[in-house]
Amino acid sequence: xxxxxxxxxxxxxxxxxxxxxxxxxxxxxxxxxxxxxxxxxxxxxxxxxxxxxxxxxxxxxxxxxxxxxxxxxxxxxxxxxxxxxxxxxxxxxxxxxxxxxxxxxxxxxxxxxxxxxxxxxxxxxxxxxxxxxxxxxxxxxxxxxxxxxxxxxxxxxxxxxxxxxxxxxxxxxxxxxxxxxxxxxxxxxxxxxxxxxxxxxxxxxxxxxxxxxxxxxxxxxxxxxxxxxxxxxxxxxxxxxxxxxxxxxxxxxxxxxxxxxxxxxxxxxxxxxxxxxxxxxxxxxxxxxxxxxxxxxxxxxxxxxxxxxxxxxxxxxxxxxxxxxxxxxxxxxxxxxxxxxxxxxxxxxxxxxxxxxxxxxxxxxxxxxxxxxxxxxxxxxxxxxxxxxxxxx
Length: 393
Ligand code: CMC
Prior knowledge:
Elements: E1 21-24, E2 29-32, E3 35-36, H1 37-43, H2 46-55, H3 61-73, H4 79-87, H5 94-108, H6 118-144, H7 157-166, H8 177-190, H9 197-207, H10 212-223, H11 231-244, H12 249-257, H13 278-292, H14 299-312, H15 315-319, H16 327-337, H17 344-365
Antiparallel strand pairs: 1-2, 2-3
Helix pairs in contact: 1-8, 2-17, 3-6, 5-6, 5-10, 6-7, 6-17, 8-13, 8-17, 9-10, 9-17, 10-17, 11-14, 11-16, 13-16
This protein binds carboxymethyl coenzyme *A (CMC).
Carboxymethyl coenzyme *A is lined by residues 9, 196, 227-229, 231, 256, 264-271, 320, 322, 325-327.
Protein name: Citrate synthase
GO molecular function, one term: citrate synthase activity
Organism: Rugosimonospora africana
């Protein structure tokens, strides 16, 4: 079996070869299929980027129209599935509801679960992209006891999601076009990030030839964790705590440096980016734009700006190369749009979905793929003889 090397957390071990996303953590570079993230964020739309990640090339106008139409066709959930959302407790975390519902898709579409059948993979791709926003909005509606709205397929992807989330049947929904375009851009920024924890999970589960819904549902569960996608929620909780305790960013940073009860500056640090996270700079600008348009300024923005300022000039953070990551400012934008804190990671999941699908498909199509099966260094007891119950101390 050869030599086994311990690499806790896979700091130096590549699990696959991939053509999808390139990161240079020292230079702060992120590209999808070769295109720099800042250009995509500025110029492209989320479905265009989803197409790029999944099929490898930017779509032509008719390809994008066709892709969009196929997705729109599948936005409805089956009525039986819609009723699931009544069964979860009101206070369930929407990420737990999301992963359960994605997992349940493989009960409804048993005829298209073969990971090696091109057409089945294609229809599952479209179904997942189409249904995730519907599922996400129902997770929210269920938590506040409002009626579920059916999708409106005359609307764009993000517009439809916003209407299903914030609309009510008793009055017309007034879409804020700035919110829609900023949310679309945030989804672009989240769409892939090579072998992060949730994507590696999707690949590992898929490597056992589990179907796409099962694999993606596992990815949603990984994203739920506060060190990963859950960080955007944790950042807001942290800002709120600092605000409630009298806006003292300085003493919070001290607590972090003293590692009091493992306190971390949430939204800071990244395994790969050791210079800056190129997504964070784009998000910070968007946060300032969206928040400056609000009737009442959010005091949490000032706390975030102050925390960043203190941390970036402090040796603790400089020595450890800790910079704001994508999650540091996103929560403030989501809050300004009206999302409750618990929905933040769900938004990350909607954004990350094209990446999960693209990586799963790339792996399934690769003849070099083997089942993921890490080794270990055993550190337990050496061989010892069984002790009968009456002789145990
Ligand atoms: N606040 C305070 N100290 C930190 C932080 C932080 N946010 N992040 C890392 N450190 C310290 C850590 O304590 C360690 O110090 P020491 O050498 O004294 O023990 C050193 O920096 C190295 O940290 P690490 O935990 O070995 O680094 P990692 O690459 O394993 O962890 C991370 C990366 C993102 C999990 C971590 O930086 C972290 O916990 N950040 C806060 C959570 C967060 O914002 N996560 C979102 C990541 S970006 C998007 C996503 O993946 O969802």
